[in-house]
């Protein structure tokens, strides 16, 4: 319709349904192309880089350590976040054309992969805490089997918890969409509070407390080394700590980046719950959190020589050679890797 010489065009997701259809968000052609290119590039890079981490740690047996198993779990969750980004491309213009079942799958995958990612970061913090603060008992307390059990429990709890939270959505796909072409979900009021506690407040508190303790031990250790007060009987344990501290620094970067990307999302979600809502802010913080899944493998590439070597082996197809899984990928890199 035309008012005061201004032409307003309303486009619908399903024009033949009239007012029962959701409205399509209109962008200029250049903006639409730019958004598709950016989202597609980030999605492909996230999926590809995390897939390289998954293949590397899974294939090379020398990398089958408790800490690396935790990195593998984080890479798997980040991989699924990359898959979720692909679904987001379909929502750029505000219309969902894949059907109610795929909408529920997309939402459930988003919640489960996000929760598993948060749980894995907590496990990484616990792993570094034991390695740095109790190095003498690390080998007995943190074993590969225990790490695997913790990872399985983390994913199992994330799946069960969010299946219960999204129970109404799973039983009634599309039942909460206000218009045709939408993809929305419903959470009971108490579920939002529980999710805030279990997915943000408690995990972040645990992560901060553990890494503050790790930082304090690392500082005291550095001071002791500089002052040369370490006695001969402690030299071996100091060597262990020095190696573990290198891993703690790298994983500390991963944890700090994760917290910085996660915190704005929940702060905005909290303001929405209090009645303060900004669509642009919400889109930005969601994008920031999803972007974290791309940053993790980039951090590994810059700080882990073994990862760069593994990528070369994967891309050159050397992993297809018989016995390649037994290769000592850490050879000549032991001074750099944990």
UniProtKB/TrEMBL annotation:
Keywords: Cell membrane, G-protein coupled receptor, Membrane, Receptor, Signal, Transducer, Transmembrane, Transmembrane helix. The chain crosses the membrane at residues 34-57, 69-92, 104-126, 147-166, 186-216, 250-276, 282-302. Pfam families: 7tm_1. Its main location: membrane. Residues 1-20 form the signal peptide. Residues 49-300 form the G-protein coupled receptors family 1 profile domain. The keyword Chaperone does not apply. The keyword Transmembrane helix applies. GO terms for molecular function: trace-amine receptor activity. GO terms for cellular component: plasma membrane. It is found in: Cell membrane. PANTHER family: HISTAMINE RECEPTOR-RELATED G-PROTEIN COUPLED RECEPTOR (PTHR24249), TRACE AMINE ASSOCIATED RECEPTOR 19P-RELATED (PTHR24249:SF381). Belongs to the G-protein coupled receptor 1 family. This is G-protein coupled receptors family 1 profile domain-containing protein.
């Amino acid at each position: 319709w035309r008012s005061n010489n201004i032409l307003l065009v309303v486009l619908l997701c399903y024009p033949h349904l009239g007012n029962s259809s959701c409205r399509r968000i209109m962008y200029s052609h250049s903006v639409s192309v730019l958004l598709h290119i950016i989202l597609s590039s980030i999605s492909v890079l996230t999926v590809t880089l995390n897939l390289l981490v998954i293949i590397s740690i899974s294939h090379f047996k020398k990398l089958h350590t408790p800490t690396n198993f935790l990195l593998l779990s984080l890479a798997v969750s980040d991989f699924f976040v990359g898959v979720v980004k692909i679904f987001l491309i379909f929502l750029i213009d505000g219309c969902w054309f894949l059907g109610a079942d795929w909408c529920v799958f997309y939402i459930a995958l988003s919640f489960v992969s996000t929760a598993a990612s948060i749980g894995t970061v907590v496990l990484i913090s616990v792993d570094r805490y034991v390695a740095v603060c109790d190095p003498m008992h690390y080998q007995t307390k943190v074993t590969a089997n225990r790490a695997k059990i913790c990872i399985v429990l983390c994913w199992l709890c994330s799946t069960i918890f969010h299946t219960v939270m999204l129970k109404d959505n799973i039983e009634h796909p599309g039942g909460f969409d206000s218009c045709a072409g939408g993809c929305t979900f419903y959470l009971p009021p108490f579920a939002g509070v529980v999710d805030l506690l279990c997915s943000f407040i408690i995990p972040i508190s645990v992560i901060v407390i553990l890494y503050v303790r790790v930082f304090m031990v690392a500082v005291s250790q550095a001071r002791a080394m500089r002052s040369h007060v370490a006695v001969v009987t402690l030299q071996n344990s100091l060597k262990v700590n020095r190696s573990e501290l290198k891993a703690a620094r790298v994983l500390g970067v991963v944890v700090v980046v994760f917290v910085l990307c996660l915190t704005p999302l929940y702060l905005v979600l909290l303001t929405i719950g209090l009645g303060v809502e900004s669509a642009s802010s919400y889109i930005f913080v969601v994008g920031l959190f999803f972007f974290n899944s791309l940053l993790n493998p980039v951090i590994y590439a810059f700080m882990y020589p073994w990862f760069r070597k593994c990528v070369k082996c994967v891309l050159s197809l050397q992993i297809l050679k018989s016995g390649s899984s037994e290769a000592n990928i850490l050879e000549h890199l032991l001074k750099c890797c944990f």
